[in-house]
Design a protein that fits this description.
alpha/beta
């Protein structure tokens, strides 16, 4: 379904039950913000405050942000959409728990004349705009880093692939990019799609992989994010595997960065949340005010249900022990004292993190 960039900046389905705003609105707007879960540290610590701050800046403090977190429950998130529609928000920013399950809610919003910005994950349904990271590139960065870390060991042993949840469209893109780098260079002994991205599920999967493959045969682990990497490393330690094989990650969570400092996790993917959050805020305000997205979206993507969605993608960075200071510290995500607690001080000193 084509997305129109008419003056209202939103798309209508052919049923024409959606309402167009009678006139452009000013800064007195209400924006609904729906984030998917609170297990991953990023949403409450970074995304929410960054989006709110940018909306506040763009509207001279006159806009209202109504927030809800779905706590990894797709049904709850659909109910939250219904509540936002009932409360007549002017625009919705949605990071979907389940990209398919949210499609009905997106259509309801559109039918009510409420444009929708898909944030971080490409939700299905008549989405008006989308911002995220280049998610296939995330997988390429992870896979390439793992191959480089393995070196000559890539040919002799097996790796375990711990992908994200099948309900998350980003997980499929991470997997695709990673396989492009890994296939033909390493042997994938076991591969899992991890339910709900939960570290405890990754831990159980890793225990099963160790049992099936043997602890001496695993030379590396592809982990799609840092939370799962934590569960994986716990399983590796419990099995007595030393030294730990290289393990990838994503999100540059504080615990992940500290594991990198300690030499337990090889890398993470640093995704600077500020430009992503700012893009979502700018798109949402523009849509609510009836303005064009032409200056805000530099590309277009297709979902399973909607074609030509105006899109802005943010590049990513491979985070290793060598560039912590130049990435998450320089950008103000973490301070050195936050990273280098007493437990990690000696390792930080060795890396020059002072």
């Amino acid at each position: 379904m084509a997305v129109s960039l008419a003056a209202c900046g939103s798309a209508k389905e052919s049923g024409d039950s959606a309402k167009e705003p009678a006139e452009k609105k000013g800064n007195d707007i209400t924006i609904g913000l729906l984030l998917p879960e609170n297990q991953t540290a990023r949403y409450e610590k970074f995304d929410k405050p960054l989006i709110e701050a940018e909306i506040n800046s763009l509207t001279q403090g006159k806009a209202k942000v109504v927030y809800a977190n779905a706590k990894q429950d797709a049904t709850l998130q659909t109910q939250q959409v219904d509540t936002m529609i009932t409360n007549k928000v002017d625009v919705l920013i949605i990071d979907a728990v389940d990209s398919k399950a949210i499609a009905g809610g997106v259509k309801k919003a559109k039918d009510a004349g409420i444009p929708v910005v898909a944030y971080d994950r490409l939700a299905e349904g008549p989405i008006d705009a989308y911002t995220s990271f280049d998610n296939e590139e995330v997988g390429h960065v992870q896979g390439k880093a793992l191959v480089e870390a393995l070196g000559d060991k890539a040919k002799g042993g097996q790796i375990v692939m711990m992908n994200g949840a099948i309900t998350d469209p980003n997980a499929a893109l991470f997997k695709k990019g990673a396989h492009a780098e890994l296939d033909g260079k390493v042997t994938v002994g076991k591969e899992y799609d991890t339910k709900e991205w939960k570290p405890e599920n990754a831990n159980a999967n890793m225990e099963a992989a160790i049992s099936a493959l043997g602890k001496d045969r695993i030379v590396g682990v592809y982990s799609a994010n840092d939370g799962m990497a934590g569960g994986i490393i716990t399983a590796l330690k419990a099995a007595g595997i030393t030294p730990l094989p290289p393990v990838t990650g994503q999100d540059a969570e504080l615990a992940g960065v500290q594991r990198i400092v300690a030499g337990e996790q090889f890398m993470s993917v640093y995704k600077p949340y500020e430009p992503e959050a700012e893009a979502a805020a700018k798109m949402a305000v523009a849509l609510a005010q009836g303005r064009s997205l032409a200056a805000l979206a530099d590309s277009k993507v297709d979902s399973a249900t909607t074609k030509g969605i105006p899109t802005y993608l943010v590049p990513v960075v491979s985070l290793t022990k060598d560039n912590i200071k130049d990435t998450v510290v320089k950008d103000g995500v973490y301070t050195i004292p936050e990273i280098c607690t007493p437990k990690f001080k000696a390792a930080c000193d060795r890396l020059g993190l002072k």
